[in-house]
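#lab-general

N.A. 3:47 PM
ok so I finally got the sequence cleaned up, no stray characters, all 116 residues accounted for. can someone with queue access submit it? mine expired

B.Y. 3:52 PM
send it over

N.A. 3:53 PM
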Amino acid sequence: MISFSFPKKRRLLNRTDFVNLNRSGKRHHTRHFVVITKRNGLGITRLGVTVSKKSGNAVKRNRVKRLIREFFRLNYSKIPQGYDIVVAAKKDASYLDLWKTKEELGEIFFKKELSA
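B.Y. 4:20 PM
back already:
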């Protein structure tokens, strides 16, 4: 049975991880997101999410973060393993719903090569 949880071991939590990924990761752009990827050598894929204040107030920013985490949680088994991934939301991302989020992020995770 597939586990749909999102434990701490699948999250990027340290500032140094975010900074290293920003410096040396490969960037993929969509209309509402920038996705930065890099191999981590751990055998598991970890996710970090950033949403700037340009996206709106705290309610809108938290909603965008929930949508991104939900996409990652539901599609974890389909995403290639062994990567660190940071998803940075652009300004208008607060107007998306789960379906549109899935379409945009799916373009990167399912159709493109993530290698860095």
